[in-house]
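All the exercises in this workshop are built on plain-text protein records. A record pairs a protein's sequence with a compact description of its fold. Read left to right, the backbone structure tokens trace the chain's path through space. Once this layout is familiar, the rest of the handout is easier to follow. Here is such a record, shown just as it appears in the course material:
>
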Amino acid sequence: MFKLTNLKLGQKFTILLLVVFLGGILASGVALSTILNRTAQDQITTKALMLMETMNSVREYTSTQVKPELIDRLDTEFLPEVIPAYSAREVFETFRDSDDYREFFYKEATLNPSNLRDKADDFEKVIVEEFRKQESLKADSSKEKRGIRPTAAGDLFYIARPIKIQKQSCLECHSTRDVAPKSQIERYGDAGLGWKLNEVVGAQIISVPASTTLKLARQSLVLILGIVVAVFAIAIFMVNLWLKRYVVKPINRMAMIAEAVSTGDTEAEFGQFSKDEVGKLAQAFNRMRMSLKMAMQRLERYRMGRRSSGPGAGSHSSPSQNSH
């Protein structure tokens, strides 16, 4: 059966350090994984929000610069370029040609859109309804929502912001049949009508595969844990080296000298090379050696004295002297 008492001092310290090392790696791995996942999500959220602001700028430009120039042609010809949502979607597709944004997806999920491409699905309807509820409660609906959406192709990490009708110009195409351009009515019918000012009609949603965030977090986790493992490995090596040189080696030397002293070699000295606990131990052994040497010398003198004062010792009187 394995027993720690059967191991050498260096081996015991190595096992202790390994236990601490493995426990530290496990605890730090769990904590780092959580933190890095959040950090990765924050990084992607920052990118997504920048993209949303860019898309809002495109929408604003389309609404204020492009649409006024082409509004007169809408009675006879429908031009999708005057629709802010269409422009934003097309510009975003250009972004996706870049490797940095290839996995990002953009949608203006709307409850009652003109183009069915923008129609909110069941999951997106829940998000829009939550924004509408916040608006009705006068809550802060300007902040984004984010989370994980399960799909058949895999989980998606999404960021969503409400689409609120804040300009009267938006109602020129989405209020009633009488106001909407004829070309729009011919193409889409009553779809996309009935919007009202200050109403939340949809949500801007940018999504990215959840595996992307996990990949970013995993790369950071491997890098950090690799550094931690390297630091711990160096620490274990240095501690063992220090232990062997300043503790184990002096103790082994003292054990050899103590063995020699125990067999009668009282001239052997326990060298004191430091002032720490090991040095104090060597100093105590030296005092014990001196005390043992002095005790053995006294014992030897005592024995010599006993032999000199024993029977037959000293001078005896002659018989002739005793007869007088």
Notes: Confidence is low (pLDDT under 50) at residues 315-324. The domain at 221-307 is CATH 1.10.287 (Helix Hairpins).
